[in-house]
Design a protein that fits this description.
The complex is a heterodimer of chains A (263) and B (365). Chain A is of the alpha/beta class and 263 residues long. Chain A has a domain of 173 residues: 3-Layer(aba) Sandwich (Rossmann fold). Chain A has a six-stranded mixed beta sheet with strand order 6-9-10-3-11-12, with helices on both faces. In chain A, strands 2-1-4-5 form a four-stranded antiparallel beta sheet, with helices on one face. Chain A has a two-stranded antiparallel sheet with strand order 7-8. The longest helix of chain A is centred in the C-terminal third of the chain and has 16 residues. Chain A starts with a strand and ends in a 24-residue tail after the last helix. Chain B is an all-alpha fold. Chain B has one domain: ABC transporter involved in vitamin B12 uptake, BtuC (Orthogonal Bundle). The chains are: A alpha/beta (263), B mainly alpha (365). At the A-B interface, helix 2, strand 6, helix 3 and helix 4 of A face helix 1, helix 10 and helix 11 of B.
């Protein structure tokens, strides 16, 4: 379990996140939603150990601040929003960096082929020999996800759950790959791990999240199941536009929801 | 599952996965090793005297004390050419590896100790020791003995690398423009301070300085090799431990941390290694430019940017190329000798411009 209590983060003199409360249990997919600039990424960076914070964050019962980088790396992997490279790495070389800590949790003998298997899971089979810098933004994002998957290949290692932190994992993907990636995250949680994802698509959030944390102006505005959190009143207040949950478009304007995709 | 059984078959064979360049990298390292051995033999046997390669080999292999060489050739080879070859290898390897580490650290293929003021800082340290070694720094000079010059150059390089890193990196992001401009400023500042030191130097010190500044392997002695050998060996020995971290750092500081690298500590070890390697080579050979940028760049084209292979390959190719450049500097205007810094700059500067032109779109300048 990951637990954050009264977490505040300041960058320079500006307080970006105040008194944030958050928890995720193994088997859960928790979504963090909120408007731009509401502190989602900053909070995730504190959770990842990138930024100093006040308050307490614990991961599987250990205080985050007391853990060494390699110890944290065995418990969670982090997918950043975008990663630019200045050297010509191949896709396989990037994915293999996920195995750097040597605690993927894959069976002995499996690790050799893990990059290929991870690439297949993000629908990039056969991309191993391509140069990362020559891929599109969405493909690069999926390569990074394959790397992150390699780092915590087994969702549970030595009876302790592991976690995926995903910062806008589907923001630059087409709808097919949005569904593939969200299914993959769902599956990771289903096998005993935990997933924390910052999402912008409220439909995908409603579809996949067990628990939604709504952030607004650096604070927690609401937390709970999709049915409880996605209300007209809350959505309209937080996103500052009049939203109606579950309402169909007027007339016969076409609309396509991820929920309607056949499995 | 299907692919599990396939994995067993594949791992039994030698077939590499697409995108896995490690087999090629190992092959290239093998070739570079062989090339270095050949270059060493050529360097030992080429020059004004005509001691041949086969004679040297026969001398090494012969069981008798007298060997197959004349007394004159023995002195030329063992006391003149061998220390020169050893020093050339050490300096070439140090410069190339320092360049590769620095490029990884700054996440930029153009970072090079010679270009961005680290060598200038080392030179300032060395000049300071040469000029003030008899007066102000006398206690240090006598305490450190033969290590005084390399240690002073190391200290100068360390200070300038730390300054440069502090100035050009903010929140884990290194700005190329800031780095290059700060490097120019640091080099200018070091140049001014060196000018000041030269101004107060006496005649004998001026003579020492001039010889040192020429940038040459000509003054190689076993004592100098002994002075820089351990320092460069330590820096090179750190390289295998740095490789993993440099690979992770290619994805950015935050991601390196997520992968389990203690980024802050790692960066200091890398900076100290760069300063040690640069300082030691500047101390004995003056300014030899462009090795640190040309060698890693050529190797990245051949084997890719994986530092586990790039660092050892850079050491080998750097050593070979510097020996070749030294051979050119000894023979091109024979019987006189061209400072080797001129040879590496004449070959390296156009190469650097070529990289710039190729990468013009990529650089955020």
């Amino acid at each position: 379990m990951i637990e954050a209590r009264d977490v505040s983060v300041s960058i320079g003199r500006k307080c970006i996140v105040s008194d944030m409360k958050f928890e995720i249990r193994p088997g859960e997919l928790a979504a963090i939603v909120g408007p731009n600039g509401s502190g989602k990424t900053t909070f995730m960076r504190a959770l990842s150990g990138d930024l100093p914070y006040t308050g307490s964050i614990s991961i599987n019962g250990h205080a985050l601040a007391s853990l060494k980088p390699w110890e944290v790396a065995t418990m969670r992997a982090v997918l950043p929003q975008a990663t630019a490279l200045s050297f010509p790495f191949t896709v396989r070389e990037i994915v293999k960096l996920g195995l750097l800590g040597g605690r993927s949790g894959a069976l002995p003998g499996e690790e050799e082929r893990l990059p290929e298997r991870a690439l297949a899971r993000v629908d990039l089979e056969g991309f191993g020999g391509r140069f990362y810098q020559e891929l599109s933004g969405g493909e690069q994002q999926r390569v990074q996800l394959a790397r992150v998957l390699c780092q915590v290949w087994a969702p549970v290692l030595e009876e302790r759950p592991r976690y995926l932190f995903l910062d806008e994992p589907v923001s630059s993907l087409d709808i097919k790959h949005q569904l593939i990636i969200m299914d993959l995250a769902r599956d990771f949680a289903g096998r005993g791990g935990g997933v924390v994802a910052i999402l912008h698509d409220l439909n995908l959030t409603a579809m996949y999240a067990d628990r939604i944390y709504v952030m607004h102006k650096g604070r927690l505005a609401a937390a709970g199941s999709p049915a409880n959190v996605l209300s007209d009143e809350l959505m309209s207040r937080v996103f500052e536009c009049r939203l109606r949950v579950g309402a169909l478009p007027a007339g016969n304007a076409p609309f396509v929801l991820p929920q309607s995709a056949a499995p | 599952m299907f692919d599990t059984s396939l994995a067993g078959v594949r791992s039994g064979g030698a077939q590499a996965m697409p995108g896995d360049r490690s087999a090629r990298a190992r092959l290239v390292i093998g070739i570079l090793l062989a090339a270095l051995v050949i270059t060493i033999l050529l360097s030992l046997t080429s020059g004004a005297s005509d001691a041949s390669a086969s004679a040297v080999l026969r001398d090494w292999l012969s069981a008798t004390e007298a060997g197959a060489l004349s007394e004159r050739d023995r002195i030329i080879i063992y006391d003149i050419r061998m220390p020169r070859v050893a020093m050339g290898m050490l300096v070439g390897a140090a410069l190339a590896v320092a360049g590769a580490i620095m490029q990884g650290l700054f996440r930029n293929p153009l970072a090079d100790p010679g270009l961005i003021g680290v060598s200038a800082g080392s030179a300032l340290g060395a000049v300071g020791m040469l000029v003030l070694g008899a007066s102000f720094l006398a206690p240090m000079a006598s305490l450190l003995g033969i290590y005084a010059l390399p240690v002073a150059a190391f200290a100068g390089g360390l200070v300038s690398t730390l300054l440069l890193y502090r100035i050009s990196t903010r929140r884990g992001q290194t700005s190329v423009a800031t780095m290059l401009l700060a490097g120019i400023a640091l080099a200018a500042l070091a140049g001014a301070l060196m000018g000041l030191l030269i101004f107060i130097a006496d005649d004998r010190q001026l003579r020492d300085l001039t010889f040192w500044q020429l940038g040459s392997l000509a003054g190689a002695t076993w004592v100098k090799v002994a002075a820089i050998g351990p320092i460069i060996a330590l820096a090179l020995a750190a390289a295998p431990f740095l490789a993993r971290g440099l690979n992770a750092l290619a994805l950015g500081e935050a991601t390196a941390n997520h992968l389990g690298i203690p980024v802050q500590r790692f960066k200091y070890v890398a900076i100290i290694s760069v300063a040690a390697a640069t300082g030691a080579s500047v101390a004995v050979s003056g300014g030899i430019g462009f090795v640190g940028i040309v060698v890693p760049h050529m190797l990245r084209l051949a084997i890719g940017p994986d530092n586990r292979y790039l660092l050892p390959a850079s050491a080998l190719l750097g050593a070979s190329l510097l020996l070749l450049a030294d051979a050119v500097s000894r023979t091109i205007v024979a019987p006189a000798e061209l400072p080797i810094g001129i040879v590496t700059a004449a070959a390296g500067a156009p190469f650097f411009l070529w990289i710039l032109l190729r990468k013009r779109g990529v650089l955020d300048l």
